[in-house]
Each structure stands twice: as structure tokens, then as C-alpha cells.
Specification:
Structural class: mainly alpha
Oligomer: single chain
Distance between the termini: 42 Å
Number of helices: 8
Length: 185
């Protein structure tokens, strides 16, 4: 909860990956708040009783949302999908605007990797931005499991990371109304 709100303010890409990890953490604990208290919340050192209570309520709310939205086994919460959709809309706006050649160039450098990943996805095709996040999340899981990555996969992840970093930076600039030039009225 504390980490999530910090990541939301600072880096939207890290926030999405963190929230996907939280969804998986909740699933790994069987959507059981008692297990989450024992395996997650109780491991945080130095939390006040109020912070512990807030954290428990946050996890309980996420569990409730996961049940209501039917994503107990897989998939993502609507709140996370909404942010991904905002990123997709920004991505499309940046590509359509000729005043963002750096972004467009970075996207086209990334596109071959996206196409390759999507071709391996089988039936579950996702959009370009979600494909990038899925690749980054897969890399995160591989690192957590201490699995080796091929040089090709490393190159793909490096390019995808660079592209998503630019999109993330632009997302925060857009939120602050500092990205698109306003036309004189």
C-alpha cells in the first residue's frame, strides 16, 4: 500500500508491475487475509498499529475486488486495467503527434520484439503496451526464480524497458499537463 502509492506517483510502469505482483501474492496466499497477515504484513518491521491496520484493509479491499471481478485465478483488476488503458491512449496520442519523434522512433525500435512476443502468445493476444508489460513482468519473475535469460531475451527486455521508461515519463508529464503544447486560444 505504501510502496504502491509511492510507485504510482514516481513511476507508473513500476506501479503496474508492482500491482501485478500484489495480485499474484494474494493468489499465492489463497485470497486469505490471515495468510497475508502472516506471510506479508507481519514481516514488515516497525509498522505502527495504524499502519498495520491500513495495510490489512488495503489487502482486504484488493481481495474483495478480485473476487467481485472474477480474477481469483488469473487476470488483472479493473483499476490496473484502467491505468494500462490510459497508457495505451497516451501511446496512441504520442504516435499520432509529429512533435514526438523520439517516442515514435523508440516504439519502432521496440516493435519487432512486440511482434515476436505476440506471435508466441498463441490465442491470448494482447495490445502492444500490455505485451511489453507482460514481457517485463515475465523477466521480473525469471529474476525472482533466479533463472537465466538468453542474450536475445535480454536484448528484447532492454529495448522494451527503454521504450516503457519513455512512455512512463511521458505519462507523468501528461498528468502534470506538461507534455502536449497548448494551442493559443
Amino acid at each position: 500500500m505504501i510502496i504502491a502509492s509511492q510507485k504510482r506517483k514516481e513511476n507508473i510502469a513500476e506501479y503496474i508491475l508492482y500491482m501485478w505482483q500484489i495480485e499474484d501474492l494474494i493468489r499465492a496466499n489463497g485470497l486469505d487475509i490471515d495468510k497475508i497477515k502472516e506471510n506479508v504484513i507481519d514481516r514488515y518491521q516497525g509498522l505502527s498499529e495504524a499502519q498495520r491496520r491500513d495495510m490489512t484493509e488495503w489487502y482486504e479491499a484488493l481481495i474483495d475486488m478480485m473476487r467481485r471481478e472474477g480474477v481469483q485465478q488469473s487476470g488483472h483488476l479493473q483499476i490496473n486495467k484502467n491505468i494500462l488503458n490510459q497508457l495505451v491512449q497516451l501511446h496512441q496520442a504520442l504516435l499520432a503527434d509529429p512533435s514526438f519523434p523520439e517516442y515514435t522512433a523508440e516504439f519502432y525500435r521496440t516493435l519487432p520484439y512486440i511482434v515476436e512476443l505476440r506471435s508466441k502468445a498463441g490465442e491470448s493476444k494482447t495490445g502492444e503496451i500490455e505485451t511489453c508489460f507482460t514481457a517485463l513482468y515475465g523477466m521480473l519473475l525469471m529474476r525472482l526464480q533466479k533463472k537465466e535469460m538468453s542474450p536475445e531475451t535480454s536484448a528484447a527486455i532492454k529495448q522494451i524497458s527503454r521504450f516503457i521508461a519513455i512512455l512512463s515519463r511521458d505519462f507523468h508529464l501528461d498528468e502534470e499537463d506538461k507534455l502536449f503544447k497548448k494551442e493559443e486560444e
